[in-house]
Amino acid sequence: MFTRILIANRGEIACRVIKTCRRLGIRTVAVHSEADANARHVRLADEAYCVGSAASRDSYLRADRIIEVAKRSGAQAVHPGYGFLSENEGFASACAEAGIVFIGPPVAAIRAMGSKSAAKALMQAAKVPLVPGYHGDDQSPAFLQQQADAIGYPVLIKASAGGGGKGMRIVEKREDFAASLASCQREAEASFGDKRVLIEKYLLRPRHIEIQVFGDSHGHIVSLHERDCSAQRRHQKVVEEAPAPGLDAIRRAEMGQAACDAARAVGYVGAGTVEFIVDPSGAFYFMEMNTRLQVEHPVTEKITGLDLVEWQLRVASGEALPLKQEQIPLRGHAIEVRVYAEEPEKGFLPSIGQLAHFRKPAESEYLRIDTGVDEGDSVSPYYDPMLAKLIVWDQTRERAIARMLQALGAFEIVGVGNNIAFLSRLIDHAEFRAGTVDTGLIARESEALIPKGQATPDPVFAVASLWIQRHEAQATRARATAGCDPHSPWGEADGWRLNGVQTRRFEYRDGETVKTQTLRYGHDGLTLDTVPSAINQATQYVVGNERFHASVVRLGDQLHVFSGGRHHIVSPIDRLAHAAGDQDAHGGLTAPMPGKIVALAAAVGSEVEKGAALVVMEAMKMEHTLVAPARGRVKAYLCSVGEQVKDGAELVEFEATP
Known about the structure:
Blueprint: E1 4-7, H1 11-24, E2 27-33, H2 40-44, E3 47-52, H3 63-73, E4 77-79, H4 89-97, E5 101-102, H5 107-114, H6 116-125, E6 133-134, H7 141-151, E7 155-159, E8 168-171, H8 177-192, E9 197-201, E10 207-215, E11 221-233, E12 236-242, H9 249-265, E13 270-278, E14 284-290, H10 297-304, H11 308-316, E15 333-340, E16 342-343, E17 349-350, E18 353-354, E19 357-359, E20 367-371, E21 378-379, E22 386-394, H12 397-409, E23 412-414, H13 420-427, H14 430-434, H15 441-444, H16 446-449, H17 458-482, E24 502-510, E25 513-522, E26 525-528, E27 531-537, E28 540-543, E29 546-555, E30 558-563, E31 566-572, E32 589-590, E33 595-600, E34 607-608, E35 613-619, E36 622-627, E37 632-637, E38 644-645, E39 650-656
Parallel strand pairs: 1-2, 1-4, 2-3, 4-5
Antiparallel strand pairs: 6-9, 7-8, 7-9, 10-11, 10-13, 11-12, 12-15, 13-14, 15-22, 16-17, 18-21, 19-23, 20-22, 24-25, 24-31, 25-26, 26-27, 27-28, 28-29, 29-30, 30-31, 32-39, 33-35, 33-38, 34-37, 35-36, 37-39
Helix pairs in contact: 4-5, 12-13
């Protein structure tokens, strides 16, 4: 077994590997970019070295610098995590040349599965079922268009070197193919340095089921059961669970055998995942093999009771697999959700900023949290915005769902947008509860999963008013205690008046309306609009006959109220403050985050409809299309293709027309 390893990654996977290494007594060496100098994985590791500037191409993708650090630190092995260099054939080869163990499969296996097109040919020879499609070398747009026409629409364009949902486009009709191909190729080249694609028939309402496989250098390969990853958006997994709902033992064995055959065909060693697409009839087809540990590996660990990172380390050090196929446990049900800094109501646009408040539910045998951030850390525009993975386990799927909803309700985040409310609605959706999820569920049910214009419940404003009153009273008492007369009655702030009753008016902006609360100080306590109210404890509020458990966090001019598993943001109105002047709504388009302009989609002077694509920018390793806010005319572009723009930069001069 190794005594010192280098972790060539960041975020929650780096922290996850450090945790296992600590348990095994292995020292860890972290690498980081300048932007990640104080990241959680850096704080947890025994040693840490900077390998470059913020952009991943100048740091986490610099194989030469990472190997140099491995040599300098005396690391015997490199754990690549997932993403970045984890499936990079050149990096694995460079590690071998430097005498450093690459904790992953042999170079030949990475090469074989690194190209989706070549992998399809191998799987066809191994008699693993394939989806109809084109996986060849001719990459001319006209030829690819002909192949798509022959396959029949809808088709799926996929980056040959891709993964993580990047470089993928569904094309519903022929006239959309050329633009989708160009966009897919741009994103593939930006993410993987390789713009080659393959074309496949797009199956309607399929499931995405993958098999975790493990091989050792002694010729043993086992399946560690399946994961259902069908809940996706833009081909990126959102929820994963194991085992797959409704999959019987016979089909599980068939898919497991096919996955092992696929791994055996390339002489696989280490952790890998064979991904299948499953049509409504139950027929399954090979999609790709990921030659690394997956983001969703914790659900497999929960149903087997195994530590897959420990297995990786043992196999890489030459040990045989600890268990045979018939010894692999399968117990209970596990679900994982990915908590992202993003705004579902704005098309899942990534959110950047500081985590002013980051309160996680308590971990237990039923609940696990993998995260790469702590409260006070920043979410930068340079990397994937995943904040944490929330994993639950219980004896049955129904109980696991209940635990997940409870855990999501206890997760509190302030400072960046997040998808927790969206995840709660998804887990509670009737189709998810029934176990009938397909890859199109989120897009199909977007209105139910991302409801618009929801009014804030009145009790939330009551809680906000009571919190403000208590917070101000505590501050007044603290000042009195610290002053020259700590026993002054003026330090009580209890609203006492010699004659009459003191009242106080609170106002809050709720969308286009203003909510009003009147607080009265009486001999028998506080009342809100004649409803008896009281504060019993720091997080317990009583409004009339209703009792609320809530926590309140102030950030700037807003109050974040967490209650009943919901997160509400209320904005108190200060009538004494100078109102800011209304901004001129000139109809311009601004950059929602720092990024690179990759395409200008409409001609200057052209008339466009609301929602028409105007600018395509690349940020956080994904393409984002900015659309016309209304029907109108593109007067001018204030940016150019290839330009790196800042957050809030004016991009388009746009004139709305009736």
